[in-house]
Amino acid sequence: MTALIGEVTKRLPDRWLAGTLLPGLLWLAVVGLAVRQGDAHPFDPRVVTEAARALGTLARDRPTEALVWAAFAVGGAGLASLTARGLGGIVRSLWWGRWRGPLVWPARTLTRLRAQRVTRRLVRAGTRLPERYLPALPTWIGDRLRLVDVRVDAQYGLSLALVWPRLWQRLDADNRSLVRQARMRLDLASTLVGWGVLYLAPTWFWWPSAVVSAGAGVVGWRRGRAAAEVFGGAVETTVDLGHLGLATALGHPVDGGLRPEVADAINDQLHKGATPQQVATATDETS
After folding, report:
1. 108 and 200 fall within a common domain
2. Rounded CA separation 159/279 (Å)
3. Domain region containing 19
4. Which one, of 96, 243, 216, lies nearest residue 160 by Cα?
5. Are 234 and 185 in contact (CB under 8 A)?
6. 3-class SS letters over the chain
7. Does residue 254 contact residue 244 with C-beta atoms inside 8 Å?
8. Alpha-carbon distance 149 to 134, whole Å?
9. Confidence at 285, pLDDT banded by 50, 70, 90
10. C-alpha angle with apex 276: 153 to 279, nearest 5 degrees?
11. Judgement on whether residues 126 and 227 belong to the same structural domain of the protein
């Protein structure tokens, strides 16, 4: 039995093992212990000992039945991981800050409060920022990613939604990998928050699960902010280093830098007659 499990484990991709199977099995273990322990004696070590002894006895005396339960456990772990990723997708949508439906009014309130806080800080420091650099979304992460587009437009006059797919095609494998890793960190952070939400389920039976949930949520949120900073910086760096080469490849002169009229010509060439509003709408629908 042990040899069979070891052989199966060897054949599993490391990423799937670490990112899907193990977190799912851990969640299932917490749920099982939560149901057995309950709130009366939440830290009774005998429950863990008895559960481990029962599993050992099952694997030794009834290996076929143990294998069936192991298959169910793997399936349950995969389903739990899929749910956590789905919740992570919802978290990312909230982080992006483009709230719709019943969240529109809270979004407007949070955006106004964030803008007022930043404005007061700037007044105390005796500095000013252009209005488009002030918070325009209810979340810090959403504004950090939005500022990439704003900065590219302010510096070069280019639309990031238009030039980014072309810049991506011109990147070598190493630079693509750097950008992908930065984005992957953001996805992993949101999935961690999804796990935090999922760990609320055992709270009904075992209150310490709420502590695990809160910890995963806080860590995921902090990692998300750091990942958004890295990802935004990676995209900006790619534009900084590649916009002149892209302009040249598109047939525009770049002697002495990218002039405003050349940037306008590039934008017009890339959106192929569509208005900026149409481009922005299409980008929102596909993001």
Report:
1. no
2. 9
3. 2-97+139-286
4. 243
5. no
6. CHHHHHHHHHHCCHHHHHHHHHHHHHHHHHHHHHHHHCCCCCCCHHHHHHHHHHHHHHHHHCHHHHHHHHHHHHHHHHHHHHHHHHHHHHHHHHHHCCCCHHHHHHHHHHHHHHHHHHHHHHHHHCCCCCHHHCCCCCCHHHHHHHHHHHHHHHHHCCCHHHHHHHHHHHCCHHHHHHHHHHHHHHHHHHHHHHHHHHCCHHHHCCCHHHHHHHHHHHHHHHHHHHHHHHHHHHHHHHHHHHHHHHHHHCCCCCCCCCCHHHHHHHHHHHHCCCCHHHHHHHHHHHC
7. yes
8. 13
9. very low
10. 100
11. no
- Torsion over CA: 27, 182, 264, 134 (sign): positive
Task: Name the token pair of 17.
Answer: 């093992």
Residue recorded with tokens 């709230």: 99
Give the position of tokens 């209005």: 131
Residues 115 and 144 in one domain: no
Question: Are the CB atoms for 20 and 81 separated by under 8 Å?
Answer: yes
Mean pLDDT for 186-208 is 92
Question: Given a cut of 90, is residue 227 above it in pLDDT?
Answer: yes
Q: pLDDT tens for residues 127-184?
A: 888 889 999 999 999 999 999 999 999 999 999 999 999 999 999 999 999 999 999 9
Token pair belonging to 285: 């629908």
Same domain, 27 and 127: no
Question: Distance between terminal CA atoms of the chain?
Answer: 47
Give the chain's largest Cα–Cα span: 79
Residue 233 pLDDT > 60: yes
